[in-house]
Amino acid sequence: xxxxSEPLEVDRLADGGADVDFTIPLAELAxxxxxxxxVAGDLQGHAHFAREQGMPVADLAFSGTVRxxxxxxxxxxxxxxxxxxxxxxxxxxxxxxxxxxxxxxVLAPGGRIGVGELLTExxxxxxxxxxxxxxxxxxxxxxxxxxxxxxxxxxxxFANLADLLKR
Length: 167
Fold this sequence. Notes:
The protein is an alpha+beta fold. It has helices spanning 10-16, 30-33, 115-126, 161-166; strands at 8-9, 19-25, 42-52, 55-69, 76-90, 104-107, 112-113. Strands 2-3-4-5-6 form a 5-stranded mixed β-sheet. A hairpin with a 2-residue loop joins β3 (42-52) and β4 (55-69).
């Protein structure tokens, strides 16, 4: 296991004011890979753990370039990402009500979580659900407006449905 994938004890990190620097290859994040096929790239970042109002918290900052697959042309595309997140690490969903509004609650079951898990949560919020190039950059050119099938006519499979229903 790599250090960023190992579950860490959030109470010990928070009590010690720990700082964790990381470089994470996105292809190795199982939670991200299963939802975003073909994701690649490396992200660099820093996590600072502390305790606020008796609760373990983390300030997570990361940046890098993520390679995705355009769902229109199926060609690779790159997206720069940069984010700073203020996270409250909670042991149960009941604790979410105590989280201050400036912090985002993240569940750390058993008081343990890996930096890779924190990063996966943030990337799922940050990356597009359907990655697409800008139209001017995409290798797939959309069909001209007003044109349908190859013969120039639009195929309308339900055009006579109203007549059939009247019978």
